[in-house]
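Sample pair:
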Amino acid sequence: MKSTVLDNLGTLTMDRGWSDHQNAEYFSWCIDPGDLLDCLEAAPESHPLANEEGMKRMRDLKETINLDDNNYIIIGKWKR
């Protein structure tokens, strides 16, 4: 199964079918805070596309998520 790596957020990956909207340039993803926490906890410890800065962002995001938060919207630009 193909997955997309959000390398600016460490090793956070989304499986095929995750995107709420996508076109040739951008994508968006609306996710419940509990589901996002589950994704962050399941993220692998390393990935060839991840750097330390992205891993730190992923850890920092994980620490700030509250289950009572509103949904998160992640917007990104495809790398070429």
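Residues 3-77 form one domain.
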